[in-house]
Amino acid sequence: MDTIGSEELTTEPIIQDSEEKIDSETEDIDSSNQVSESDEETKSTELDSVDLIDSSGSEQLDSTVVESANSVTADVDSSVETQESSFLANQPQAGSMLAEEVATPSVSYQTHVQNYGWTSAVKDGMTSGTIGEAKRLEGIKISLATAPVTGGIEYQTHVENIGWMNVVSDGQVSGTTGESKRLEAIRINLTGDMAGSYDVYYRVHSQNFGWLGWAKNGESAGTSGYGYRLEAIEIQLVQKEGIAPSPTVKAYMEKEAGVSYSTHVQSFGWQNYVADGALNGTTGESKQVEAIKIKGTNFSLSGSVTYRAHVQDVGWQNWMGSDALSGTVGMGKRLEAIEVNLTGEMAARYDIYYRVHVQKFGWLGWAKNGESAGTEAYSYRIEAIEIKLVEEGGPAPGSTANRFILREEPILSYSSHVQNVGWQNYVFDGALSGTLGESKRLEALKVRLDSQPYEGAIAYSANVQGSGWQTWSQNDALTGTTGTGKYLEAFKIKLTGEMAEYYDIYYRVHTQNYGWLDWAKNGAVAGTEGYGYRIEAIQIKILSKGKAAPGNTTRPFVKKPSFVLGPNWTVEQGYFQATSGIRYYVGGSYIIVSIAQQKMWSYIGTQKIVETDIITGNPYLGYATPKGLFAIQGKQSPSVLIGPGYASPVQYWLPFLGNSYGIHDSSWQTHGYGGNLYLTYGSHGCVNTPLTAVRTLFYTYSVGTPVVIY
């Protein structure tokens, strides 16, 4: 290598030139013993030129100059030395130039290069290393040659198979020597007052990329994740607000971090490595995973992957490091669960997610950052695994429910056969099976119990389009049909034996037009009848006996009515018909108010929701409640009713005509409701309603619900 350090060439050649000039001057002094003023100016100018060679030309001196410098002897007699000292002392301009040189900051650096060892030091933007020789940098030392203010320089390198090393400073070695490890990136910073006055810029020549852009003040320069060596470096100081070298873009090229993994599978042995969420193992072949190896890829930060497995007849093993074997090989023992984690800076930057495919259960939910994934106490084999890195705090790759199942409570799972889809994967205890928003019918269902602590079974029956109720099926047998294109309209599900004594089974369905109905339990019907509406999805949940229901249980089943019969009215096929001849279309959900009887009724289909006495407007005072077909125009809770001379607070306000007439509670009605009270205590036209009744209306009926007042 031809690189020559500039610091080694700055002294001896200058001494040689100075001695020659001093000898000449000495001769003049001996002959004339006097120096003219113009001669002194000439000498000063000559000495200045020597200094300029020292400051700007030393890097260009060839080996001949070096040899000449080394051959100069020091046998100058004492009189010449005395005259030389006197001469230099009388050179004010040269002295100023030397002072300025000392005050200029300078950075010096040398690199340890593959096969060559330590190169000579260079400084201030010069190249250290090699270009075009495919030689790696293995170490570096950096220092400030001169500094006009206090401070130093610190730096750290990213080393092959090590990552970012600790920060070192002021001429210490960063990297390695004798280990054949490449530098891949570097960060450099000034310290003390130097950091406030100057910026340090640096760029690297990287394998395959060549010269990258200039980084500064602690920014990373180089590559990460590529396995590319640094081959050369340039460093320079720039005064704050000074002109930066260019370009300053793409100083650091980082490859995205990932994770790869391989499993040892029964009968097949080690599988090829896959990466970043891909499946490793098998599904549908009943083969157990017996061991696993996991490693990080393109980790630019400190840290690694650690993991441990729960092994048949062994339990949890010790934590293993990157790409080490966890599990067993040649012993025929299955993995039943696994935990995976990140360490170091990687743990602060990323979450590591993983999920397993387990015998009988299929895919469980995603675990992360050391959580257990799999099963315990079931003796179920892991058959496949997926692992993925996600930015810290980012969304999980999928559901995190049921990522680890410990055999303590019964596990309920179920699968639906869906139009144009077929059998879906089993879901667990309360999860949705089927589809929403796709207008697809459920055609069949299978339900099963695992790990039940008591004797008994789960039984279920479906009401099938055109066929009616089927006989009871149980324990993963099919109810419904496949291949006939028939929808299910309703379900019944129940527990048998001791299981029925200790647990309740709840279920609800999502039906065409109605959406989610309420929860049924223990053999009650969930769905519809008489409408020809398809079931589109189902949820099933098992709870300990007596625990609260998972949601509302008011209306799990809707049967199409033939008609609704009131005291002097009927609703049939959606039409309200009074005996007086009044006829309105109200659909399947409505509120009816009779002024004559001072009564209110509300229905959904044929199901009566509210029947209550009321007080309407006082006709004697000109406040008769208007009659006709109206609709709920809004809902407000609480509210204040304001009129001439009053402001009455109410809990619930449902206006049906403008914002003047509506249904509301009336705490001031202390004489009760119904009968002829409206003739004495009548309202200003609104429908005064008991609090419990109006609360039910408020939370049951939506804006737009028809209101008949007759």
UniProtKB/TrEMBL annotation:
SMART domains: ChW (SM00728). Residues 1-59 are annotated as: Disordered. Gene3D superfamilies: L,D-transpeptidase catalytic domain-like. GO terms for molecular function: peptidoglycan L,D-transpeptidase activity; transferase activity. Pathway: Cell wall biogenesis; peptidoglycan biosynthesis. SUPFAM superfamilies: L,D-transpeptidase catalytic domain-like (SSF141523). GO terms for cellular component: extracellular region. Keywords: Cell shape, Cell wall biogenesis/degradation, Peptidoglycan synthesis, Transferase. The keyword Transferase applies. This is L,D-transpeptidase family protein.
